[in-house]
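User: Show me a protein chain along with its predicted structure.
Assistant: Here is one chain, sequence first, then structure tokens.
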Amino acid sequence: MAVTRDDTPTDEPPETPRPPTLLALPSYLAGHVARIGHRVLVEALREQGLRLPHFAVLAGLGDFGPLAQHELADRLGLNRSHLVGYLDEVGQQDLLRRERDPRDRRRQRVALTAAGEKRLAELKKVADRSQTEFLAGLSDTERETLVALMRRIVTTDDRAANSAPKNPR
């Protein structure tokens, strides 16, 4: 049984089961919205036989071109040792190739194959559809505004992280 603001019992369900104090916190809302969007995207990729890190690898290589493995891990925010496993899994599908980095022959560079480029184009459509589903309650203008604001927050954080003094070892 729900209770109204004046403590009168009612059989009506509350408008939201979440505390208004939390609903007033942008970080709480952003975290919860992120979980919803993540769930929708992960499910769409799972139906394609891939996990989100696999899509991230393909998207990173599609956006930036061939990269050294360590640089790809850093740009994706992935643990370098975990990246090796993701590359192995995606490589088994012939979606990428490893080659020696021409600038530093000691390092491996990763690049999309033609099949990887084709698969990435298909997956972008899947991801776009999942995001349309996720944001179905918003108008196109609201979606654009939401993305622009979130991108600004991420960009600001990236700048702060890149300008922070590095700890010498």
